[in-house]
Design a protein that fits this description.
- It is globular and about 60 Å long.
- The chain is of the alpha/beta class.
- The strands form five sheets. A seven-stranded mixed beta sheet has the order 2-10-9-8-7-3-6, sandwiched between helices. A four-stranded antiparallel beta sheet has the order 13-14-17-16. The chain has a two-stranded parallel sheet with strand order 1-15.
- α2 runs antiparallel to α9, α4 packs parallel to α5 and α10 runs parallel beside α12.
- The protein contains twelve helices and 17 strands.
- The longest helix is centred in the C-terminal third of the chain and has 27 residues.
- The mean pLDDT is about 95.
- The structure holds D-malate (MLT).
- The site of D-malate has 4 residues, from loops.
Length: about 400
């Protein structure tokens, strides 16, 4: 008899963004003439930068010719891309990362979700609340939690992020082995300073813990004093894995390309306390389960690091960040307290009512989709998240409609 992994039964019946899509589709069906503006899931609307498209086309042409055709590539990614990542994303910021510590992949969602496969099942795990649901759900699927009660899974240590701590979690009061951090944060848009990250790195080194650091939104940091990578913090090479993505940075949500950094000095321990190389283990897993990102996509990603690619990417990010500041300004003027939107594309808004009620109100009265904060955890109740990823004219229109709905 085919048997189920019963840990799946502990999960909410659908993934947050699937649930939202379901509700939006049902609303659209009932109101076919209503124009809906989507500021919910962080999905980009601008076309790929011109430099990426040119590199993409050229690489497709390479595939049309026996002399330049590529079959299987290196599972970890082509040298041409890994070297540029190491140089421009890390060494240029004095972060000591080498090309062979980078694993190119098809998404930070998959990587943050898959990485937990390397860990034992009796770990103590700290996750922020609110949190990107993938970190939690994948540990639930693997059986590292108990059941879901009162908005939380038993067995996880929740790091509460609230207005009282400016949405930056404090160190845990009990020992944990694995820590998920995300800065700039999804969903709150909060950012961490060097000294805040240093506390986490020091904690992890002391406890032989590991930090999984999601930096998918680093390109949206405008404040020059803020770190973009955890490897800008001394000691992080020993205790942190970092996830990056081209999805939001360069519009690759549909094209798919990301990478994970696993420093060679990062160790993991067996039940006898012997240390093993995390890099070798992730390499083993990656080569077994993944055959690499396609050559044309990696060439398109490489183009981001050219002078023209970098300036086109900056222009697109600036457009989204103009949207972010308009959203933040309008919602603040309406009397809502807001976080994010200054160094991140998400604005986290204290809606002062049940978050799904706020979601329904904006959908039904303004035709605008946001994300209910409760979907990210118990501390998200009462909040909504508005994403800046859309065309400026749509954001302007959405803000007029939201303004009307909130004064009606
Ligand atoms: C979000 O809206 O939180 C993100 O787009 C989800 C993701 O990147 O998977």
């Amino acid at each position: 008899m085919i048997r189920l992994n019963e840990h799946y039964l502990k999960l909410n019946s659908s993934y947050l963004f699937s649930e939202i899509a379901k509700r939006v589709n049902a609303f659209q069906k009932q109101n076919p003439s209503k124009e809906i503006i989507r500021l919910g899931i962080g999905d980009v609307t601008n076309a790929l930068p011109k430099a990426c498209i040119e590199a993409f086309h050229k690489a497709v042409d390479d595939m049309a010719n026996d002399a330049t055709f590529k079959g299987y590539g290196p599972e970890q990614g082509y040298e041409f891309l890994r070297e540029k990542i190491a140089r421009f994303d890390f060494q240029a910021r004095n972060a000591d990362i080498e090309a062979d510590e980078i694993f190119v992949s098809d998404g930070a969602k998959c990587d943050t979700g898959n990485f937990q496969e390397l860990f034992s099942n009796d770990l103590s795990i700290a996750v922020p609340d609110p949190v990107y649901p993938v970190y939690v759900d994948t540990n639930v699927m693997a059986g590292r939690t108990g059941s879901f009660e009162n908005g939380r899974y038993s067995g996880l240590y929740y790091l509460e992020c609230t207005e009282d701590n400016d949405f930056i979690p404090s160190l845990p009061s009990q020992k944990v082995d694995l820590i998920y951090l995300c800065f700039p944060n999804n969903p709150t848009g909060a950012v961490a300073t060097r000294s805040q990250l240093k506390q986490w790195v020091d904690y992890a080194r002391k406890e032989k813990a590991l930090i999984l650091f999601d930096a998918a939104y680093e390109a949206f940091i405008y404040d020059l004093s803020l770190p973009h990578s955890i490897y800008e913090i001394e000691g992080a090479r020993e205790c942190a894995v970092e996830f990056r993505s081209y999805s939001k940075t360069a519009g690759f949500t549909g094209t798919r390309c990301a990478y994970t950094v696993v420093p060679k000095s990062c160790m993991i321990y067996d039940s006898q306390g012997n240390q093993h190389s995390l890099h070798s283990l992730w390499n083993r897993r990656h080569c077994t389960k993944f055959n690499g990102v396609s050559y044309p996509v990696q060439r398109a990603a490489e183009a981001i690091y050219s002078e023209e690619g970098a300036s086109q990417v900056r222009e697109i990010i600036d457009q989204y960040m103009t949207n972010a500041s308009m959203i933040r300004k309008t919602m603040t003027e309406k009397g809502y307290s807001c976080t994010g939107g200054e160094n991140s594309p998400y604005i986290w808004i204290n809606g002062k009512i049940d978050s799904w009620m706020f979601f329904d109100k904006l959908l039904s009265e303004a035709g605008v989709v946001c994300t209910p904060g409760a979907g990210f955890g118990r501390c998200g109740e009462g909040y909504i998240r508005i994403s800046a990823f859309n065309k400026k004219e749509n954001v302007e229109k959405a803000l007029v409609r939201i303004g009307e709905a909130l004064t009606a």
